[in-house]
């Protein structure tokens, strides 16, 4: 990938002639004359079809096209699942001769995790819409980051034996993030499975394979970490913490806490360091006995 991206250091990306985020209307289709600039064209939602340079591409969320000068795209949408797209036209100011076509990212890229890429696109739109001055350098940097993401997707190994574990690892990461966001709640396995579109049995096996621990064990660990935080850094007592973490049995809460932290929650509460003022004096009523 390195040999293909060095040209980014030698150019300035700018002259944004057209840009926006569009919820495509009923009856929409796209058939412009040959482009005079580049167009980063990204599907946020919906379905359809795009013809580009003799190839037919299904349109779906997370698919991005780098349409080049001279290209003549033709797109239509599924009327039952209309498109939402982001488009950003730009030009390349070349410092050391024209960019070779084979150095550019391919015309079509599927983003495995579109969140970061969409964040970059929305940042560019914000700059273009709302920042009248001093935006050119940041736009150049952010657009180059977006192009680097396209390169990175194509640099990933296409071998199915490698691809499946990588996708599984990504899904496990999504589950971990969700469990930590919902740190106080015991989340049903069905709810976790629905978030990633898989069966509960498959999710349980996949999670154990990639983390070495079961979903139940990991969820309990997250809840105990949250319990320790609440005891150490809030004024909540043991009963209040147990209730906040949706425990109906205080004895089960205490037993699990001791298994994870080596002492019962009541002793952990007393062992926690007292809150101090900026002068280092303990706040009244917070001294440990």
Automatic annotation (TrEMBL):
Residues 269-289 are annotated as: Disordered. Gene3D superfamilies: Homeodomain-like, Jelly Rolls. SUPFAM superfamilies: Homeodomain-like (SSF46689), Regulatory protein AraC (SSF51215). Residues 173-271 form the HTH araC/xylS-type domain. Residues 274-289 have a biased composition (Polar residues). One of its GO terms (molecular function) is sequence-specific DNA binding. Keywords: DNA-binding, Transcription, Transcription regulation. This is Helix-turn-helix transcriptional regulator. It comes from Paenibacillus sabuli.
